[in-house]
């Protein structure tokens, strides 16, 4: 029995950064006494494998990165890896932190590996570790080692590896593989290389490959058939583990640094956490950190030789945190040989230049150097085996002797006779089989072929306006005046008595809607809209305003309701014809909009019933009013049709609403000549509004 009362003194193990495992110095004394008395130990110490790096047996692996794919059926490989680790295990006093023992100060290790591909998705490998040279402190406590110092050379536990590629991604994309490892107790148990018992490990590996770069990771579980406590007593208990890896690999050729694409750079995080009996990631157990190693590996893998059967991997492994077996520095170099069949498809084209490694070249004398079969040498859509003219593009034929051969072209229009609908007339290709190879037709002779002519029976007028549609445009500006009589055919205008200005835009200096060249008798004095001589463009007195402007409510009210002609008997929807006596008021609205840029008017007409027909008729009346106002030249968009608003009904006549809108950058609101103001309204101080007439 070991005394449990000797708890006042303890030592600690530290890996690079001083991870500590309590060790009772009283127990050390007791163990020393028992050893001195000649009592035998049933189990050698330390009896666990303290290595935190173990190489892969796959010939395509890096230091930590493991590919999803396998080498191939019965393809074998051998290799050796040399590694140097500095101070992987250190013992320190818990109270003082002083170094007491360094069981392993320097370690030079060799790993011998070999592997064999099983089918297209299987692989098996073996690895044997050896300590070529290692040294550390002498006179080690019996709780730490049954030997006074670590053996200089030693054999480690033999490992057997297996892999099954579940989803291969050698051509890119997502891949999955299952990995398994079993170790056998062949190692020296006093060398930190031997467990003294069988271990088994399984991992699931997943990766996403971009061909020139790859991100991969694995997670698994390691089972120990015999748990160990070290130092014994009072140390950490080595039980089951959860191993993990996370790797990023990049081909430097993507950066233009390796034109031969022989290298692969790697950066990997790897390690494990305890799975029991010690809880993983600490979780309140101070013994967990020494059992949770984590390291970052950085390496470069280079393929050597013309055939690239030889490869070397070199890199470093840097420890994170503090755990047993993590050295202050580890340098690694591996050399491997993986002989391959360099003509996988046996077509005589070496794999390093064969663009189709698994598909044999057809050796037909056409592009036979790329390693890919050309099933259609002339690219005419007819495979060479059925093509009677395999080197000359042709057409399909029901006659085997003519199949794939070119056909004649009697009219030399570039359309083969067998698809030419007009083989004796030179024509043009067409996507329509019925017109293919036929000449273009221009029925009206206007220079626009019928295929593109929207008016094949009417000649284009060729006046420089939309001449490519084949249709004549008798009124280019769509002002209702034919181009033949329109002196401004590209500008919308108005009819004028002056033939030289007929069809040209109206000139209206005083903005009263009367054309200065045709009807305005007072060019610089706007019309007063009061029902007195409202057709001469001059100011006058008397009468009453045709238009009332409410500047507070932003509304316009006409003196008399807008009148429409009675509908024609038996004609539906004929309510939209305006009575001529309404023109003065509507013209006054147009003048108001011309004199005030930035103002606009919304026109609405009250539906005479609740039906959809009545709503359509009301919209027709509003559109007629809008058109009548727009005909007198207000700015574009200054008048528009809107829906009837019952809330505003009392501000207008019973059937029509004129809602005034004024933009923020418009001129100050003023009453135009002839527009009255409602009683009680206060006019703005600037500019002053004239009194109602």
How would you describe what is shown here?
This protein has 693 residues and is mainly beta. Among the domains are: 10-337, Porin; 547-676, OmpA-like domain (60s Ribosomal Protein L30, Chain: A, 2-Layer Sandwich). The protein has three helices and 23 strands. The radius of gyration is 50 Å and the shape is elongated. The protein starts with 9 loop residues before the first strand and ends in a 17-residue tail after the last strand.
Give the amount of beta strand, in percent: 25-35%
Distance between the termini: 126 Å
User: Which blocks of ≥5 consecutive residues have pLDDT under 50?
Assistant: 1-42, 570-574, 664-693
In total, the number of strands is 23
**Average pLDDT taken over every residue:** 79
> Sheet with the most strands?
12 strands, antiparallel, barrel
CATH structural architecture of the domain at 10-337: Beta Barrel
**H/E topology pattern:** EEHEEEEEEEEEEEEEEEEEHEHEEE
Radius of gyration: 50 Å
Structural class: mainly beta
CATH-defined fold name of the domain at 10-337: Porin
What is the CATH C-level name of the domain at 10-337? Answer: Mainly Beta
The CATH H-level homologous superfamily of the domain at 10-337? monomeric porin ompg
Question: Percent helix among the residues?
Answer: under 10%
The number of distinct helices, counting runs of at least 4 residues, comes to: 3
Question: What's the arrangement of strands in the largest beta sheet?
Answer: 3-4-5-7-8-9-10-13-14-15-16-17
Shape summary: elongated
């Amino acid at each position: 029995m070991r005394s449990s009362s000797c708890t006042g003194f303890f030592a600690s193990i530290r890996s690079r950064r001083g991870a500590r495992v309590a060790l009772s110095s009283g127990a050390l004394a007791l163990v020393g006494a028992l050893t001195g008395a000649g009592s035998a130990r049933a189990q050698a110490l330390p009896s666990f494998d303290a290595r935190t790096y173990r190489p892969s047996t796959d010939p395509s692996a890096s230091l930590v990165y493991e590919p999803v794919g396998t080498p191939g059926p019965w393809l074998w490989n051998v290799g050796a890896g040399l590694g140097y680790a500095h101070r992987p295990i250190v013992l320190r006093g818990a109270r003082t932190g002083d170094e007491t023992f360094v069981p392993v100060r320097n370690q030079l290790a060799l790993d011998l590996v070999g592997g064999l591909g099983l089918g297209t998705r299987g692989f098996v490998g073996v690895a044997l570790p050896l300590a070529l040279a290692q040294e550390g402190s002498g006179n080690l406590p019996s709780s730490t080692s049954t030997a006074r110092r670590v053996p200089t050379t030693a054999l480690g536990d033999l490992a057997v590896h297996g892999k099954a590629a579940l989803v291969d991604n050698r051509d890119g994309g997502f891949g999955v593989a299952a990995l398994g490892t079993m170790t056998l107790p062949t190692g020296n148990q006093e060398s930190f290389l031997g467990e003294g018992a069988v271990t088994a490990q399984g991992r699931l590996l997943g990766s996403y490959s971009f061909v020139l770069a790859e991100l991969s990771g694995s997670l698994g579980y390691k089972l120990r058939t015999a748990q160990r406590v070290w130092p014994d007593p009072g140390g950490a208990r080595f039980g089951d583990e959860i191993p993990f890896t996370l790797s990023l690999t990049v081909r430097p050729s993507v950066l233009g640094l390796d034109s031969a694409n022989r290298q692969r750079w790697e950066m990997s995080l790897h390690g494990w956490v305890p799975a029991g009996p010690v809880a993983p990631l600490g979780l309140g157990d101070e013994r967990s950190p020494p059992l949770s190693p984590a390291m970052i590996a950085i390496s470069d893998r280079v393929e050597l030789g013309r055939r690239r059967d030889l490869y070397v991997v070199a890199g470093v492994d840097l420890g994170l945190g503090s755990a047993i077996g993590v050295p202050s520095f580890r340098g690694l170099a591996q050399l491997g040989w993986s002989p391959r069949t360099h003509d996988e498809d046996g077509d005589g084209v070496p794999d390093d230049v064969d663009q189709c490694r698994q598909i044999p070249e057809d050796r037909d004398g056409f592009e036979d150097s790329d390693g890919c079969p050309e099933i259609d040498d002339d690219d005419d859509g007819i495979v060479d085996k059925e093509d009677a003219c395999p080197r000359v593009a042709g057409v399909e034929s029901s006659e085997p002797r003519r199949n794939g051969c070119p056909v004649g072209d009697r009219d030399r229009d570039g359309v083969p006779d067998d698809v030419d609908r007009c083989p004796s007339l030179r024509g043009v290709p067409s996507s329509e089989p019925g017109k293919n190879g036929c000449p273009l037709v221009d029925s009206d002779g206007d220079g626009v072929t019928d295929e593109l002519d929207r008016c094949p029976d009417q000649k284009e007028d060729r006046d420089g306006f939309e001449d490519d549609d084949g249709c004549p445009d008798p009124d280019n500006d769509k002002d209702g005046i034919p181009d033949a009589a329109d002196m401004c055919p590209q500008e919308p205008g108005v009819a004028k008595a002056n033939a030289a200005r007929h069809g040209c835009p109206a000139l209206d200096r005083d903005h009263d809607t009367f054309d200065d060249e045709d009807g305005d008798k007072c060019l610089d004095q706007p019309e007063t809209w009061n029902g007195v001589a409202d057709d001469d463009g001059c100011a006058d007195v008397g009468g009453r305003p045709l238009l009332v402007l409410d500047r507070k409510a932003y509304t316009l009210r006409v003196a008399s309701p807008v009148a429409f002609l009675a509908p024609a008997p038996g004609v539906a929807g004929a309510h939209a014809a305006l009575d001529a006596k309404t023109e003065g008021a509507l013209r006054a609205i147009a003048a108001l909009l011309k004199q005030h840029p930035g103002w606009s008017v919304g026109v609405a007409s009250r539906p005479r019933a609740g039906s959809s027909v009545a709503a359509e008729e009301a919209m027709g009346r509003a559109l007629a009013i809008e058109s009548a106002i727009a005909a007198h030249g207000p700015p574009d968009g200054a008048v528009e049709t809107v829906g009837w608003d019952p809330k505003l009904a009392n501000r207008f006549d019973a059937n029509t609403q004129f809602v005034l809108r004024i933009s923020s950058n418009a001129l100050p609101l003023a009453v135009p000549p002839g527009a009255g103001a409602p009683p009680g309204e206060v006019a703005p101080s600037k500019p002053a509004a004239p009194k109602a007439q």
